[in-house]
């Protein structure tokens, strides 16, 4: 390897055995490996640029089984500043951790369990809450969310610009799936409305799911668009809705915003309706109250 030029503009080339420029250090002390112009890349990340026409990457190696290999983000040299943020791979247990503010915040263990705010993977082995998991040891967990105590607290919170609108609340023995319902959020409250007439318009059905094929079994439920005519708040989506191209998307040639999107076979892509059957409970309760009042009136006649 040969140094080709040193001057006020920096080291403009260090050649390899084939006399091709391998490393460039420009006058701003930007380092380019495989490129002679590291400053031509984004100014927030051009201090070290590794370029190649093929696969490109960086390997940080350690030969010790009990060692860590680290990539740190530092803002100083004292206390936790040298490793205020970063990634570490622990070769002793084959886990990858993410660090912020000088402390571990997230860990991906050797089994693929993702732990946030904890390093204790035993939660996953018992199927309890505390980590996000998928196909853990052959057992299909979707997401496990943990609580550090048995007192009542939220394991999952749903919110928007209006604040918290729902969540999953857990305690020592039970789980509640809740939506906001505080009286201070409501207006025009009335208890005088006809539930029985509306309930009689519902059309409970028995059906089979197409996706289950020949093994499908009959189940009870509703068709979403039918339930929407009686209890619209229980249904999301629109009957026969399909995906369309929207503002901000990269449109194919000849396509305009609002046109239907098509799959690889040229068919429209459906947006399926969904139903929250719990939203029908108030209608059912009010109908029972009305029927009970009618029965009592008949008994007292």
Structure report:
With 301 residues, the chain is of the alpha+beta class. The chain is 11% helix and 28% strand. The protein has 4 helices and 18 strands. It has helices at residues 122-125, 195-199, 224-228, 281-300, and strands spanning 2-7, 10-15, 21-26, 31-33, 48-50, 68-73, 85-90, 95-100, 103-108, 114-116, 131-132, 153-160, 163-170, 175-179, 205-207, 219-221, 235-236, 274-275. It has a 6-stranded antiparallel sheet, with no helix packed on it. Strand 12 and strand 13 form a beta hairpin. It is elongated, with a radius of gyration of 31 Å. The model is unreliable at 123-131 and 133-137 (pLDDT under 50).
Secondary structure blueprint with pairings:
Blueprint: E1 2-7, E2 10-15, E3 21-26, E4 31-33, E5 48-50, E6 68-73, E7 85-90, E8 95-100, E9 103-108, E10 114-116, H1 122-125, E11 131-132, E12 153-160, E13 163-170, E14 175-179, H2 195-199, E15 205-207, E16 219-221, H3 224-228, E17 235-236, E18 274-275, H4 281-300
Parallel strand pairs: 4-5
Antiparallel strand pairs: 1-2, 2-3, 3-4, 6-7, 7-8, 8-9, 9-10, 10-11, 12-13, 13-14, 15-16, 17-18
């Amino acid at each position: 390897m040969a140094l080709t030029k040193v001057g006020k503009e920096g080291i403009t080339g260090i050649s390899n055995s084939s006399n091709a420029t391998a490393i460039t250090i420009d006058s701003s002390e930007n380092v380019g490996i495989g490129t002679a112009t590291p400053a031509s890349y984004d100014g927030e990340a051009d201090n070290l640029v590794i370029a190649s026409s093929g696969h490109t990457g960086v390997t940080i190696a350690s030969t010790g089984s009990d060692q860590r290999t680290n990539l740190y983000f530092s803002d100083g040299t004292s206390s936790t500043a040298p490793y205020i943020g970063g990634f570490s791979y622990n070769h002793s247990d084959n886990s990858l951790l993410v660090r912020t503010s000088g402390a571990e915040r997230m860990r991906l263990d050797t089994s693929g369990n993702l732990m946030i705010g904890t390093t204790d993977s035993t939660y996953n082995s018992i199927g309890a809450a505390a980590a996000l998991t998928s196909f853990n040891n052959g057992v299909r967990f979707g997401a496990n969310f943990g609580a550090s105590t048995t007192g009542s607290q939220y394991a999952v919170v749903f919110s928007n610009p209006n604040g918290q609108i729902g969540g999953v609340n857990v305690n020592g023995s039970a789980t509640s799936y809740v939506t906001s319902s505080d009286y201070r959020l409501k207006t025009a409250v009335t208890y005088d409305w006809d539930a029985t007439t509306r309930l009689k318009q519902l059309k409970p059905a028995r059906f089979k799911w197409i996706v289950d094929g020949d093994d499908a079994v009959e189940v009870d439920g509703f068709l979403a668009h039918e339930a929407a005519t009686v209890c619209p708040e229980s249904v999301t989506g629109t009957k026969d809705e399909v995906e369309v191209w929207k503002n901000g998307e990269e449109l194919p040639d000849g396509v305009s915003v609002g046109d239907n999107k098509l799959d690889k076979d040229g068919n429209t892509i459906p947006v399926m309706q969904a139903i929250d059957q719990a939203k029908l409970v108030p209608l059912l309760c009010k109908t029972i109250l009305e029927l009970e009042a009618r029965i009592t009136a008949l008994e007292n006649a």
